[in-house]
Design goal:
Layout: H1 2-21, H2 24-46
Helix pairs in contact: 1-2
């Protein structure tokens, strides 16, 4: 969960930096970081605990 917060904060900082300095690369990087952080936070929220073997996300690989 800490990684999600770090991704979101880094995305917001780089997005603000890119908008202020009119740098398209930093705007794109900020949007990508915010998107990755949001998807990761959503998956952490929706994914059931590992203790429940019947409630696993289908693409998780057992004993990998």
């Amino acid at each position: 969960m800490v990684l999600n917060i770090i991704l979101l904060v880094a995305g917001i900082i780089s997005l603000i930096f890119g908008i202020r300095n009119k740098l398209k690369l930093w705007i794109v990087v900020g949007c990508i970081l915010i998107l990755c952080g949001s998807v990761s936070a959503y998956m952490d929220y929706k994914m059931p605990s590992v203790e429940d073997p019947n409630g696993r996300v289908p693409f998780m690989i057992d004993k990998f």
